[in-house]
């Protein structure tokens, strides 16, 4: 559609930028501000050569220019600028795919982009905290594996005896205290405390931030989620700094070493299984039979939860 001059009429927008009619493919709420911040963070981390562009003269700001992203995505520069500024209408799936390709997004980042744009399947308003009975039974049937279930908001919902012995006994704690995000970012008054003595505490903290970015996009109106993120951004400078990176894909963790106060170091394999029906995670710490880690886990299984004296 164009005027005789070849220009689109005033107020015209290409139909790829329109919201769909009722009953269309879009199923969720578009978080314009978070979408814009996420796009900006991904653009600024990308070097011109990463996108097959010449680096050219010295740049005043890091990453690609907005104009370059729009060219790579085959969309108008004005529309992309408005997206980053949180002023644009909802993009179509094709436009999101083009932007994801231009910014070299990973599968996890592309999924997150669709969630922020409201084009991914929407979840209920609150994240689930009830654990499936079969998972509870499974935890008890694994005496040589430390296991626990974590909610989308990082709360430990269920655990077995070995998990309590390896980390801490969660039974006497309130749900507020059982939240691993609060354990990871306890505030400046607890800055000297260790996180269960784990060897990869920095990676664990980054993974927590990534998880909460994903969770907030899925449950933007859940007060437990928004309250937790707001609390940590206010009380923890480290959390606030990592939050502004807008990373959403944690690096895989294959092994983890705990420096336990009673039995010393124990190295375990770490596996995290997603329980998709309730948006929860089953975390398992195990060790190959006959290994030092397996022997230490067996000792912890005998000693029980009293073996751990981590207090926060």
From TrEMBL:
One of its GO terms (molecular function) is DNA binding. Transmembrane segments: none annotated. It comes from the Bacteria. Coiled coil: none annotated. Residues 63-110 form the HTH cro/C1-type domain. Residues 1-65 are annotated as: Disordered. This is Transcriptional regulator. The lineage of its organism: Bacteria, Bacillati, Actinomycetota, Actinomycetes, Kitasatosporales.
């Amino acid at each position: 559609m164009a005027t005789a001059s070849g220009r689109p009429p005033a107020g015209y927008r290409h139909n790829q930028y329109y919201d769909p009619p009722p009953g269309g493919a879009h199923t969720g709420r578009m978080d314009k501000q978070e979408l814009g911040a996420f796009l900006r963070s991904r653009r600024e981390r990308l070097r011109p050569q990463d996108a097959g562009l010449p680096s050219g003269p010295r740049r005043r700001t890091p990453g690609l220019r907005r104009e370059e992203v729009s060219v790579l995505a085959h969309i108008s520069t004005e529309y992309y600028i408005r997206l980053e500024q949180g002023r644009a209408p909802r993009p179509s799936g094709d436009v999101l795919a083009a932007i994801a390709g231009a910014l070299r997004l990973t599968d996890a980042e592309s999924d997150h982009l669709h969630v922020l744009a409201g084009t991914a399947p929407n979840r209920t308003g609150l994240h689930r905290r009830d654990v499936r009975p079969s998972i509870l039974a499974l935890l008890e049937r694994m005496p040589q594996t430390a296991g626990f279930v974590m909610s989308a908001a990082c709360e430990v919902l269920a655990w077995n005896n070995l998990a309590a012995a390896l980390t801490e006994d969660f039974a006497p704690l309130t749900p507020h205290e059982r939240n691993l995000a609060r354990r990871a970012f306890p505030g400046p008054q607890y800055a000297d405390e260790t996180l269960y003595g784990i060897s990869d505490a920095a990676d664990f903290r980054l993974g927590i931030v990534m998880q909460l970015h994903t969770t907030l996009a899925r449950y933007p109106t859940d007060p437990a989620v928004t309250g937790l993120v707001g609390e940590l951004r206010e009380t923890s400078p480290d959390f606030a700094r990592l939050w502004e990176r807008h990373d959403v894909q944690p690096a895989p963790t294959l092994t983890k070493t705990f420096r336990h106060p009673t039995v010393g170091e124990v190295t375990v394999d770490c596996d995290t299984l997603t329980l998709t029906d309730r948006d929860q995670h089953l975390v398992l710490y195990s060790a190959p039979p006959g290994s030092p880690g397996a022997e230490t886990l067996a000792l912890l299984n005998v000693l029980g939860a009293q073996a751990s004296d981590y207090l926060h």
